[in-house]
Write the structure tokens for this entry.
Amino acid sequence: MSSTGQTTSQQISPTDAADPVDHAAIDDSITSRQEMTGLQAMIRTQPFWVMMAIIAIGIVMMFVSDVFMTERNMYNVSRNFAFFGIMALGMGAVICTGGIDLSVGSLMGLTGIVAGLVMQAGYGIELGFIACIGSAALVGLINGVLIAYVRLAPFVVTLGSLAMARSIAMVISNNKMVYEFGPDQDLFEWIGGQSVLGIPNPVWVLAILTIVFWLVWRYTIWGRWVIAIGGNAKAAKLAGIPVERVVVSVYMLSASMAGLAAFLMVGWFGSVTNALGLTYELNVIAATVIGGANLMGGVVYAFGAPIGAALMELIRNSLLLAGIDALWQQFFVGLFLVLAVLLEQVRNRGRVD
Amino acid sequence: MSLLELSRVTKSFGAIHALQGVDLRIAAGEAVGLMGDNGAGKSTLMKIIAGNFPPTSGAIRIEGKDVHFHRPIDARHHGIEIVYQDLALCDNLTAAGNVFLGRELKKSVGPFKILDYKAMYQRAGELFGELKSETRPRDLVKQMSGGQRQAVAIARTRLSDPKLVLMDEPTAAISVRQVKEVLALIKRMKDTGHAVILVSHRMPDVFDVCDRVAVLRRGTKVADRRIKDTSPEEVTGLITGAIEHAL
Ligand SMILES: Nc1ncnc2c1ncn2[C@@H]1O[C@H](COP(=O)(O)OP(=O)(O)OP(=O)(O)O)[C@@H](O)[C@H]1O
Ligand SMILES: [Mg+2]
């Protein structure tokens, strides 16, 4: 008997004592028959198969290019996809609720400019960071409230903030580049542009966040509620889950991840214009979907974010090294996106049979 | 004193008058069958009691005190649990995940409170065992049969120790064996002082476990009879309108 949590011990009398059949034992045996090993469960996930594709491309590239496996190239590849991976973590949460966030690219522009202007004005990096994430979260809050409470379509709301956030970035930056970041300029540029133990700092951030998100999805009530809302928002509501508040939090999270990515990227570039993150929303959504997210909602994998982002960057890098015209890049990204969705479709069909 | 008392409850959806001046009382340890044709207003009445939406007019009293439910959770806090007709489950979660939806079991790990899967699987397994249902706590609801889904929805009502359980056609989709278990469960609940309102189209079920039967016709309560004072024939007549009233 469980004595945990809300379960009261004074239950309605369970089975009659005289019951000859041990149902608990039957259930136990049924349960264990069903159980899969961790490996089996993993093989059924989309990120696993995308990871296989990454390894396969990697092996091919080792023969095609001497440069591919060099430390320098790996360093650049991993740093490049880190920003998208970080945003894909947040996007994964939004898509899990059955929503979409088109505003993340523009948010990078807005929050990057905000961080830049605050530090340019002579404030420290702490305030720059708070202003960056705070302004992102504020836009996320507005998105979320319009979607959860006013019940506007996520696509339309975030398309609106895509336009508005970019415009505000242009206005407050006066269309000028910011490249002076006040007293903490060195630290700021170190965080975004340097490495620890040979691994770029943004990659560390992505790695740590991926683990945090994995724990959140698996072990927290909030994570469980987000997944439940994606499965059946009405049932979640009836079960007493504060659906609106959770949905708002998800958009705030996605926006904050865009703010964080901007903060790191501006530090790396050493400058920021209001064009930062232009069209990135498409790459982030593609990375999230390739990483196993389902636009219908209800599915999320923390590891899908870095894996999806990695595949996209790997395609770009491989084309470059293989001497294929860079103009083909978007074609292959699109191709893998469609293949990823197809793969999920096929796997689902297999399961029904 | 009645456990639950509805007086003059009316519910309109725009021009549709789903309920018109319905009175209903139920005492602890009592089971009331609620019958009526499709669209008679049974589910609407259940949802009002469960706090899904407020009545257009009329009063709800629990143990003599007026209550106003704004959300389902308000009703749950007053000891009311419901099995919805459409079950309201999340397909992408496991059976145990659905049983504990919104009231997940937690355990402490350092400063954090995390989901206690082991406890939830175990408790859900026990509940399914009590229901004699071959529902596995770790299975996804997506892959389940109608009866298994029903068991999940019923198991949800047994997490707490509710005063009143509302069941909206709990036996509609399940096997004969499982119907027997659900009916046995209702009897056990009565024995332990719980009240049950059972919505059903199955006359034998109602006559087997209920103490009273109330009949709704086009939003109006046309009968409220003790089971031992009525017959399936009379109830059928009341449902169809062949008999006008029997209050
Ligand atoms: N949310 C709603 N909006 C508008 N009309 C509704 C709503 N819910 C129910 N109704 C209407 O109220 C009436 C009663 O419906 P209700 O679902 O309570 O019937 P029921 O007795 O449960 O029927 P069944 O046996 O088919 O389950 C119907 O005419 C229905 O169309
Ligand atoms: Mg109904």
About this structure: Chain A touches chain B through 43 residues (CB under 8 Å). Residues B 13, 16, 18, 36, 38-44, 85 surround adenosine-5'-triphosphate (ligand 1) (CB under 6 Å). Residues 1-35 of chain A have pLDDT under 50 and may be disordered.
